[in-house]
Amino acid sequence: MNPNDLIPDWAADMNCAVTVCDAECKIIYMNKRSRDTFASHGNLIGKNLLDCHNPRSIEIIKHLLATGGQNCYTIEKKGVRKLIFQTAWRKDDGTVGGLVELSMVIPDEMPHYIRS
User: Fold this and answer.
1) Dihedral of CA 1/22/18/49: which sign?
2) Taking 70 as the threshold, does the pLDDT of residue 3 lie above it?
3) What is the pLDDT of residue 99?
4) pLDDT tens, 10-22?
5) pTM higher than 0.85, yes or no?
6) Which of 77, 97, 79 shows the shortest CA–CA distance to 87?
7) CA 111 to chain centroid
8) What pLDDT score was predicted for residue 13?
9) d(CA 47, CA 45)
10) Is 111 exposed, middle or buried (CB count within 10 Å of its CB: 0-12, 13-18, 19+)?
11) What is the C-alpha to C-alpha distance for residues 109 and 48, in angstroms, rounded to an integer?
12) For strand 80-90 and strand 27-30, is the pairing parallel, antiparallel, or unpaired?
């Protein structure tokens, strides 16, 4: 199956980076923003996600794949703040199929609303 068949068309031009790997950590999809973000590394489709991460991050990735969990944090790089949201995706049979990472630029000050 073509991995791009798994990704809806709306993901292609989202205003955030969308990166998807399979359960073996092979990168199977990057939308335009993701490809632009990592352009200096060349084409990463088909590459192993673990090759791009430090040991601490590798343990988190393995944990997410084993548990089907999620991880969320913010970073700042070159003066740009981003929210990173990583979560497992599941196949039709309910098993973990891999991970999705959304990376979006956020403002320095962001409203926070409490709703009941």
Assistant:
1) negative
2) no
3) 97
4) 888 889 999 999 9
5) yes
6) 97
7) 24
8) 84
9) 6
10) exposed
11) 35
12) unpaired
